[in-house]
Amino acid sequence: MRFKYRHSRRRSRLLWRIGRRYVRRCSICKTRMSTSSTLATRDCRPSMSSNVIGAAATTVIPGGLSNAFGQLFSYNYTGYSLGFSFVLPLSNKASEADHERALNEQRLSKSKLEVTAQQIALEVRTALTQVEMNRARIETAKTTKDLAQQKMEAEQTKFSLGTSTLRFVLEEQRNVAQAESNELQTVVNFTKGLVDLDKAMGLTLSKNNIEIDKTLRSGTTAK
User: Fold this and answer.
1) What would the pLDDT profile of 169-188 be if each residue is shown by its tens digit?
2) What is the pTM of this model?
3) How many CA atoms lie within 13 A of 24 on its CB side?
4) Is CATH 3.40.190.10 what the domain over 9-45+99-202 is classified as, yes or no?
């Protein structure tokens, strides 16, 4: 009984390169997301430019009885007043507090994104390592099964020649069955490792030809 699995050392190296590229690309995407999400907080700086400058000019009537009678007939207003006002705030506590809070939130967001990126990188590397280990176990199990098969055939030959007993033949057959079972288990573990690798790299949906956008659009259209 033989089991076939689609994997090779070349495929392993390819998966390793894909995994490393995905990890780097994931970290870059996380950094870009952090940058774009905090642009507003970066530009949120305390403003101290709330200065107010004002100017006023008015005309006045000079006092005095003689001036009053003179202006009554000549309409000559010879009095003027001119003034300026300037307001300079010493501090802007509200804007400074908002700015500091925004900076703290920005730093916290970056820290969370970095931790998430590191976790994703660790999951991908762990899955790749597990795939390589399971691939090596398949090779070992296959070699063990071939040796058990050869021993069983040799024991059957000895039994047909009368130099062995049925007990030893049955024992070798049992060893072959156990070796085949072990090989099958390693293939199952290898397949599970590939599934975990797809999950860590975010390829589970694409490997199963599932597109979220199309599914959501079709569901909306059906409603």
Assistant:
1) 999 999 999 999 999 999 99
2) 0.57
3) 5
4) no
